[in-house]
Design brief:
Blueprint lengths: L1 E8 L2 E6 L8 H9 L9 E7 L5 E7 L4 E2 L3 H15 L3 E6 L2 E11 L2 E7 L4 E8 L5 E8 L3 E6 L12 H9 L9 E9 L2 E8 L3 E3 L3 H15 L4 E6 L2 E6 L8 E14 L3
Parallel strand pairs: 2-3, 4-6, 11-12, 13-15
Antiparallel strand pairs: 1-2, 1-17, 3-4, 4-5, 6-7, 7-8, 8-17, 9-10, 10-11, 12-13, 13-14, 15-16, 16-17
Length: 267
């Protein structure tokens, strides 16, 4: 039996497990629990442990059982869980992408608003070819994990004669990205606002993404000359991204909500 807490950030949902498992079980447990029909249902599992220095560490496993470097929304969900448990306003979490510092901006349990320092993004232009020969120019963005950002004009986020889901699935596993990549389709609404859709590595289409919001904003600031503070709109809701300059840490602010806690019986 495994105890869990479920939380979401803009519809991007995660299970938080803070009890130790045997090393080989992380992937299988994530696959089992994340199943929408036969499990609890989630985009991923955040395994929370005490780090070597006494602080907190998290490991993220996607719904398909693959391990990822970081989730911005998942990190925020864990911060909300710890804020509930510890009644603290400043929380540092060690991820495979480095330490992320979270600050509780607002609290009205079970809902929280949290600002997270996401580190300094790396942005570079990149062009790839689809299977049908279509050349796709985009921006490769690292925010601790990999992203490929494509700018679109269509309100449905369709591009190259296909839905964004179809294009995202192909690019996610493209040979140009040996470890896979998250794929964002970004529409600039105005100087202060962008909207995006995401095909997440290891999950597929999701309602939102914290690192996806960060990457989409960083790419827009880099290539489209938008404001350095943006409202970023996903299907699941809005987040705010601030990136004062190219050498500064990017700050992501958004909601997180504790949904439920329970126990799951596993073989």
């Amino acid at each position: 039996m495994i105890r869990f807490v479920k939380a979401h950030a803009c519809g991007n949902d995660f299970l938080i497990i803070d009890e130790p498992l045997e090393q080989g079980r992380y992937s299988r447990v994530a696959q089992t629990l994340c199943s929408r029909n036969t499990g609890v249902g989630a985009d991923g599992v955040e395994y929370l442990t005490l780090g070597d220095n006494g602080g907190f560490a998290i490991r993220l496993f996607n719904a398909d059982g693959s391990e990822a470097e970081i989730s911005g929304n998942g990190t925020r969900c864990v911060a909300a869980y710890l804020a509930q448990q510890e009644d603290v306003d400043e929380i540092s979490l060690r991820t495979h992408a480095g330490v992320r510092h979270c600050r509780i901006v607002e609290r009205d349990h079970p809902r929280y608003r949290i600002a997270t320092e996401m580190g300094v993004p790396r942005v570079e232009t990149k062009t790839i070819a689809l299977k049908d020969g279509t050349s796709v120019a985009g921006l490769a963005v690292s925010i601790g994990n990999p992203h490929f950002v494509i700018f679109v004009d269509d309100e449905t986020f369709a591009c190259f004669g296909h839905t964004w889901q179809q294009v995202g699935e192909e690019i996610c596993g493209h040979a140009s990205f040996p470890k896979g990549t998250n794929v964002e389709f970004v529409r600039v609404i105005d100087t202060n606002t962008i909207a995006f859709r995401i095909y997440e590595r290891g999950v597929g289409p999701t309602q939102s993404s914290g690192t996806g919001s960060s990457a989409s904003a960083a790419a827009s600031m880099h290539a489209r000359g938008v404001a350095r503070s943006l409202t970023v709109i996903a299907e699941g809701g809005e987040q705010t991204v601030e990136w004062p300059n190219n050498s500064a840490s990017l700050r992501l602010t958004g909601p997180a909500e504790i949904i439920a806690q329970g126990e799951c019986f596993l073989l």
